[in-house]
Write a structure and sequence with these properties.
Chain B: It comes from Balaenoptera musculus (Blue whale). Chain B: Belongs to the mitochondrion-specific ribosomal protein mS31 family. The complex is a heterodimer of chains A (about 600) and B (about 375). Chain A is built from 28 helices and no strands. Chain A has about 600 residues and is an all-alpha fold. In chain A, helix 6 packs parallel to helix 8, helix 20 runs parallel beside helix 22 and helix 24 packs antiparallel against helix 25. Chain A starts with a helix and ends with a helix. In chain B, strands 1-2 form a two-stranded antiparallel ribbon. Chain B is rod-shaped and about 135 Å long. Classes of the chains: A mainly alpha (about 600), B mainly alpha (about 375).
Chain lengths: ~600, ~375
């Protein structure tokens, strides 16, 4: 846990230092390293070339200054100089990629999502709104924005201009406009490249209000046009098709398989992302229905022993979805296969970012707890936790249930100790589970002692939590369990204190608990304690009060005043209890 | 020559004592080539053993069953696992006929296959298969040897069949043909084979072995199914692999960003200190070891002789006299200079050349010979 936060702290410190150096470059000019280390020197983000010229425009484009480039372009046009086609295309590239917004800088330690205005952000100072480069989801393509304006202004346009516009439109969710532009491109007898076709496929899937069959036919049309225009498809083409088919749910299954076979037939090797999309398509719902396919087995057979290199940005989603399917199918063999694949070669790098890795391992470990023998599960527990991932409290609960099934409850105190280290000290459900498992049955004395220690520890966590929060954290069941555990281990003092807590937090003790207390009072031969119990039961108006009183009368010899006090008590309770036996009260 | 509506029936006295295994094989072969029995025999045969068979009519067997008997044995296999809900004894119903018709149609094609069979029989089979087959055979009331050999042969054929399919022979009996011709007696039977896999797996029985074998077989035969089958048929392999004579333009912004995204797929935080050091070395923060005195210094690729032998730059100067003397001394000094690059040294000489050219008149006054 500490090493993780240490690494994160180190990284953020580096980022902060970089930010400072780049903000005040004039103070960091001294360069004494020999050989020169470029990454220690400040980077220059401000354009150096002044004046209105094409070179200045190119520089601003290179530095990704959207507004500055657009202004420069306008100035050039006003001055009458023509901008070369290539530069204009580059400007279009920039505008279309960034969606007419300033791109984020690389300072991703400030990840506040600021409200994006659709106007261009003011540039120049370093207080620009910072967002991660990937969060362009909020950016939509407005009509008549700068890109379209410049596109219209360009005296000559080549295929690249159209293509980049189409790609920009699709990226920022304006599919119909993209398709219209495509027809324009065809009318001008130009040829689109493979990336544009990939975008167009996505566009056809994004169009609303069309049936799945229509969309699929449109996609097929596009592919045929690709052939007609002699454009070679690439891996992204097929991956985009599969990604779109995912939205078609059941309709997409057969086309997806056809697409996969087409890919293989042409000789394009599917990547992990391909299989990820197929898995998503075929196993969309969590619970496996009877008709759930065996495709995952085929896929795993195909992939065994292969090593992968990144070919598609979605490659790192495969393992997560594969393990999800294994978990829902409850197939441990398959899970082992998937895990082996992960450990082949360098494939472990495809596990993805933290949350994906955690998901994968949580599912894997959950499946192990469910299906594997306890010794093997414990071995995996030692290996995986905490070095590979931090367990969710649900994972620990799964492990506890596995221990329960395998009758290895003696390990519970150890698990509790570990849980505290993983930050689950204040998790109610976990503590509930632990207490319940410990308190359920009687155990040999040493174990009972260990359990009681554990219970005391948990009790202290409850108390410290109480001190911090205003809302009470005790639950009736926890109080019950802790009291029982204390009693069984012979820690009667503390057990009696627990009774006080019941009253304080207004929780009702269970019947078995009261009986156990009664038994303990008898064992210690103290009628006063027994009367305490009966009083407590009376105070809560529990129906068990009578049987307790009977037991009291039977087992103990009472002094006269005790009997009188008891009499009052039972009289009260016999009136208020629903199924009261009046004989008991009157039989005094 | 095959009469319509008749059944192929092997001339095997199943209930009699045990003929040799090879004899059974030969007889089976003989049956394929033309011995025919009428249906009445079948009726008699099955009449005595109604309890055992459950789904004789609906055949969900995969491929290549040549003889009815082997098919029945497969049913026995499955029937042993499945709850016997209906007992279907009659075999003269139309479903049979239709199914046999399809078989007859394909028998002709299959004539070749059995010829290979005897050779392959001698192939070693896995001992598990043999054990499984004998276990099944033991539990049946028929002649054990016969049943066992039948079973093994049938399994063998299926293996050949799946092998043949993998090799890519022309489809003999296609699965779909059989199913389409069969009348569906029960909905369960017409379904695709994965179902028995689940059934067999979920049964807690002693014959898990056989179940697993069948599951493995089925899985293997299902193995290539996601890659076999209809494709879109839009692209041609040839068109895709030929090198298009496209000029590679400079990578556009889209390409640059895409490659950045791709590189980010594989990023993981450092697993250990070595990875950290690798990254630092790549960034230039850490030296490369063993240390190299000239790390990062290229000297424009010039060699030592270009530094030392500078005479060739003195060609334009007079061959004798004080100027030459001076220049030679200068080249001597330059050749020992470790701090200047070759270009800088040549520049030095150039500067002096220009200087002397400018001051030509002064020199001529002092009557120094210039050329």
């Amino acid at each position: 846990m500490e090493s993780h936060s240490f690494l994160l702290a180190k990284k953020s410190g580096e980022n902060a230092a970089k930010f400072v150096i780049n903000s005040y470059p004039k103070y960091f000019q001294k360069d004494i390293a020999e050989p020169h280390i470029p990454c220690f020197m400040p980077e220059y983000f401000e354009p150096q070339i002044e004046g209105i010229s094409e070179a200045a425009l190119q520089e601003r484009i290179k530095l990704r200054k959207v507004k500055a480039s657009v202004d420069m372009f306008d100035q050039l046009l006003q001055a009458g100089t023509t901008v070369s086609l290539e530069t204009a295309n580059r400007l279009l590239d920039l505008l279309c990629y960034c969606g007419n917004q300033e791109p984020s800088t690389n300072y991703n330690f400030q990840q506040r999502e600021q409200a994006e205005e659709l106007e261009e952000a003011t540039e120049g100072n370093n207080e620009k709104p910072k967002k991660k480069a990937g969060h362009q989801l909020g950016v939509t393509w407005r009509a008549k924005n700068n890109a379209e304006r410049i596109f219209a202004l360009m005296p000559e346009k080549n295929a690249h201009s159209y293509c980049t516009m189409i790609r920009g439109m699709v990226k920022h969710r304006a599919p119909t406009q993209a398709l219209n532009l495509y027809t324009e491109l065809l009318n001008n007898r130009l040829r689109a490249d493979v990336h544009t076709f990939n975008s167009l496929i996505e566009a056809t899937a994004l169009v609303v209000n069309e049936k799945f069959e229509e969309k699929w036919n449109n996609i097929l049309d596009l592919l045929k046009q690709m052939v007609a225009q002699n454009v070679k498809p690439n891996l992204q083409t097929f991956n985009t098709i599969l990604k779109c088919l995912r939205r078609f749910h059941a309709f997409g299954k057969l086309p997806a398989l056809q697409t996969l076979r087409e890919m293989k037939a042409i000789g394009i090797e599917p990547s992990l992302a391909t299989y990820h999309y197929i898995i998503q398509l075929f196993y969309q719902h969590e619970s496996p229905s009877k008709g759930s396919s065996l495709i995952i087995y085929d896929i795993m057979n195909e992939l065994m022993g292969k090593k992968f290199s990144p070919k598609d940005p979605d490659d790192d989603m495969f393992f997560q979805s594969a393990m999800r399917v294994c978990s829902s199918l409850r197939d441990l063999e398959l899970a082992y296969q998937v895990h082996d694949l992960l450990n082949t070669g360098e494939n472990r790098k495809f596990i993805g970012p933290d949350h994906r890795r955690n998901f994968y391992y949580s599912k894997f470990f959950g499946l192990l707890c469910l299906m594997e023998q306890i010794d093997v599960t414990l071995k995996w527990y030692k290996d995986l936790i905490p070095s590979v991932f931090f367990p969710h409290s649900q994972t620990l609960i799964d492990l506890l249930q596995a221990l329960d099934v395998a009758n290895r409850l003696e390990l519970i105190p150890q698990i509790w100790k570990d849980s505290k280290e993983y930050g689950h000290t204040f998790r109610h459900d976990l503590k509930e589970e632990i207490l319940m498992l410990m308190a359920r049955d009687r155990h040999p004395p040493e174990l009972q002692v260990a359990f009681a220690d554990c219970a005391a520890d948990i009790k202290s966590t409850y108390e410290s939590q109480d001190a911090r929060q205003t809302a009470p954290s005790w639950l009736a069941s926890s109080l019950n369990y802790i009291a029982v555990l204390f009693l069984r281990a012979g820690r009667t003092q503390e057990a009696w204190k627990m009774l006080g807590l019941f009253r304080k937090h207004n929780k009702i003790p269970r019947n078995e608990l009261l009986n156990e207390f009664m038994g303990s009072a008898k064992a210690s031969g103290s009628p006063a304690q027994a009367i305490e119990i009966v009083k407590l039961a009376g105070a809560f108006s529990l129906p068990i009060c009578e049987s307790l009183t009977q037991r009291l009368m039977a087992d103990f010899t009472l002094s006269q005043e005790q009997k009188e006090a008891l009499g009052d008590l039972t009289a009260l309770t016999s009136d208020s209890s629903s199924d009261s036996d009046n004989d008991v009260g009157e039989g005094k | 020559c095959i009469p319509r509506g008749k059944v192929f029936w092997p001339r095997l006295p199943l209930c009699s004592g045990g003929p040799a295994v090879s004899a059974a094989a030969i007889v089976l072969l003989a049956s394929l080539h033309g011995t025919v029995r009428t249906k009445n025999n079948i009726q008699r045969y099955f009449g005595t053993n109604s309890v055992i068979y459950s789904k004789k009519d609906g055949q969900s067997v995969p491929t290549r069953e040549i003889s009815k008997e082997t098919k029945n044995l497969v049913n026995i296999l499955k029937g042993m696992k499945v709850e016997l809900s209906t007992v279907n004894v009659q075999t003269t119903k139309p479903p049979n006929r239709r199914q046999l018709k399809s078989l007859e149609a394909s028998i002709g094609r299959l004539q070749k296959a059995p010829e290979d069979a005897p050779q392959k029989r001698s192939e070693s089979r896995s001992p598990e298969l043999v054990a499984a087959a004998s276990a099944v055979a033991d539990s049946l009331p028929f002649d054990k040897q016969m049943t066992k050999s039948e079973l093994l042969k049938q399994l063998q054929q299926r293996e050949e069949g799946s092998r043949a399919r993998r090799v890519g022979e022309r489809p003999k009996i296609s699965f779909t043909n059989i199913i389409s011709d069969m009348k569906v007696a029960r909905s369960a039977t017409a379904r695709v084979s994965p179902r028995p896999v689940h059934q067999i797996q979920f049964d807690e029985g002693t014959d898990d072995f056989v179940g697993q074998e069948k599951a493995a077989h089925l899985r293997k035969s299902f193995r290539k199914n996601i890659f076999k089958g209809k494709r879109l048929n839009i692209f041609e392999l040839k068109a895709v692999t030929e090198e298009a004579p496209e000029t590679e333009a400079a990578p556009s912004l889209w390409d640059v960003e895409f490659s950045k995204q791709l590189a980010a797929v594989n990023e993981q935080p450092f697993q250990n200190g070595f990875e950290e050091m690798i990254q630092s070395t790549k960034e230039g923060k850490l030296w490369e070891f063993p240390t190299n005195n000239e790390a990062g210094f290229d000297d424009d690729g010039s060699e030592f002789h270009e530094h030392i032998f500078l005479d060739k730059y003195l060609e334009d100067f007079p061959k004798q006299g004080p100027i030459r003397h001076f220049m030679e001394l200068m080249t001597c000094g330059l050749s020992k200079d470790p701090y200047l690059s070759v270009k800088q040294k040549v520049e030095h000489i150039e500067q002096f050349r220009n200087y002397f050219n400018e001051k030509r008149d002064i020199l001529e006054e002092s009557s120094i010979q210039f050329n």
